[in-house]
Amino acid sequence: MAMNAVARETVFALRRQIAKIEGTLPERLQAPVAAPLGADASADAPSNADLTIVRRGKAAALPDAFLPIGVERLDAALSGGLPKAALSEIHGLETRDAGAVAGFALSLTSLILKQAQGLPVLWIGTTEIFREAGFPYARGLHASFGIEPGQLLFSEAPRLLDALWVAEEAARMTALAAVILEIRGNPQRLDLTATRRLHARAISAGRPVFLLRQAAEPEPTAAPVRLIVSSAPAVPRATVAGPLAGSIGRPAFTITIGKSRTALPGQFTLEWNPDERVFDERWGEERRVRQHRTENPVPVVSLSRGRKDPAAASGAVLAFPPVGSPTTRDQPSPGERAAHLGPRRAG
To answer: What pTM does this model have?
Structure first.
């Protein structure tokens, strides 16, 4: 029994150390109650003595503690969405994913600004990252994300050390709606200690901090959530008559939950709707066609003149009368014949 008590104390000490490394600031972390010496350790004994209660953050999350992404399955997997007062990591594995990572971050920025009440978002990066990936286009920000140029501020730092300092100082400010720090690769200075400081500042200010990792390998950070983002093939543009062949539809992202304290690993394909500024989940091209037909069960083409049956669908074979034997009904009226034989309008 003494060995069991020592083992429980060892496990508890390890869990406490992990909580400190993750920067979770537990509200209550209590050790298991050791059974008294000589007590019966049979199966009938209460199991509460072998439990370790660890509560991270608040005992009950507030309704506005999360930023809902707007996709029911993904929000449910993340227990409500991305935490507002925390460091969240948006990860791109390869250089070619830089556009998808930045686009997904801008989509989240659009969702944040809907609730920010005029507060701007600060985007921090080094000279290297902005030379490699460039700056967002101002007109594209407004057209695709509804972001005004004055709502998105940029800070270009010459070195990574300067970018980290700016991010830490900005993360503690309540005058910003969110802070975005874009880093390329796996620099040594972006270690677990640096991410713990960013996470602690985000918790203190109650503002989200997004860490954009471009072309980097996954490594331990204090961020409770890591989303791995890559581009997904776009499906043809949807029209009232069905998918338009040869066209390019909405921008799509493949989102993989790489790390989360509340969710199991999973993968989702999201589409950004630039008109409504919301995310939609894509289940595959066939599923989209079936959903479209279900939403529009009535014909979209008006009835033909003088007929009770709807017009035939596009691509159907129609029966025409033989050439040279027009019916009486197809002959124009005297008034229509006179207008047809009249002079044409110049031009």
So the answer is: 0.66
